[in-house]
Design a protein that fits this description.
The chain is α/β, with parallel strands linked by helices. Helices cover about 50% and strands about 15% of the residues. α9 packs antiparallel against α10. The structure holds uridine-5'-diphosphate (UDP) and magnesium ion. The site of magnesium ion has 5 residues, from loops.
């Protein structure tokens, strides 16, 4: 039977919210009236999430479990799910019920009525997020729009529906550490938007600490913008102008015979330029590091288990 819809769910230590999530997702998908699969990507959870998933799988055959060998991160887990999903349409949704599963039905009907390859879920109300999350998210989307090379819709996270053609295009990219919410708009396929209210996390705590947020931002910036590299050029130009001025000044002072000890100014100039140089080196390093890891070509994740494979070849009875 042809799978019409795949729903990819990255899961990392979500034991508190999984029963609620499954309870809300299943009726929505059953009501769609089309063959579907849920690809639950267990991103190396260390709590009871894998056990819970197995339990749900027993009486919900459409729930497919894919377990990664180690925590690979939200984006890598989603990419893994995208690669394995078989549906004609592929949705991605967080497990914490911040993205309402009911919207999936709207996305699917929107995709067919608008003939869109991509339907973004756009949050028109983030009042349930913390102030810090709102501020950082705002800065993220605005910066990426200002310096990035892609016009990603504002406030569209990873709640979206894409067509098979879009998924194939994304899967064919060799890119490492890809940020799907930017890679997908960058394809430029016909798109539509569904607006929704972002709810509070139904249970459990955020799995996105500041360190992971910073990593996502760096991946986004280096993946879609060369502005930081250009920044280094501007710093260099600025430094050259200042240094030329200082040179003229120093010559003038020397010629007029007013040379002063000038210790402070020397220290300030040396420290300021050393700082700028280190910053520029750091920026270069971010890009070089990514070229390096792309060159190594190591996979971003390893699959430990796929319930589909074991369902199709059940272990023979003794
Ligand atoms: N997640 C994951 N791997 C990680 C971190 C998060 O698969 O390393 C999943 C998590 O289980 C959830 C989704 O990604 O389904 C979004 O994470 P979370 O809700 O914690 O992020 P926030 O909404 O706080 O930004
Ligand atoms: Mg969340």
């Amino acid at each position: 039977m042809v799978t019409e819809m795949s729903v990819v769910v990255p899961i990392f230590n979500e034991e508190d919210v999984l029963p609620l999530f499954v309870g809300r997702l299943r009726p929505v998908l059953d009501r769609l009236g089309v063959p579907y699969e849920v690809v639950a990507v267990d991103d190396g959870s260390t709590d009871t999430s894998p056990i819970l998933l197995q339990r749900f799988h027993r009486d919900w055959p459409e729930l497919r479990i894919v377990r990664l060998r180690a925590n690979a991160g939200h984006q890598a887990a989603m990419s893994a799910g995208l690669q394995l999903a078989r549906g004609a349409w592929i949705a991605s949704i967080d497990a914490d019920l911040q993205d309402p599963p009911e919207v999936l039905a709207d996305m699917l009907s929107m995709a067919t009525s608008e003939q869109a390859d991509v339907v973004y879920g756009v949050r028109n109300d983030r009042s349930s997020d913390t102030r810090f999350k709102r501020l950082t998210a705002r800065a993220f989307y605005r910066t990426m729009r200002a310096v990035g090379t892609v016009d990603a819709p504002l406030d569209a996270g990873d709640f979206r529906l894409i067509s098979r053609a879009t998924a194939d295009a994304v899967n064919a990219l060799p890119e490492h550490g890809r940020v799907l919410r930017l890679v997908i708009p960058s394809l430029g396929f016909p798109s539509a938007e569904v607006h929704y209210r972002r709810d509070e996390r139904a249970a459990g705590v955020s799995k996105y600490p500041l360190s992971k947020m910073i990593r996502l931002t760096l991946d986004s910036l280096t993946g879609f913008s060369q502005a930081p590299l250009r920044l280094a050029t501007w710093f260099g130009l600025f430094g050259f102008v200042v240094a030329s001025g200082l040179l003229l000044y120093a010559l003038a002072v020397n010629i007029t015979g007013h040379a002063l000890p000038g210790w402070t100014s020397t220290v300030v100039v040396v420290a300021a330029f050393a700082g700028l140089q280190l910053l520029c080196l750091g920026i270069l390093g971010e890009y070089v590091g990514r070229i390096y890891s792309a060159q190594q070509g190591r996979p971003t994740h390893y699959i430990a288990y796929d319930s589909l494979a074991s369902d199709e070849n059940p272990p023979s009875a003794p």
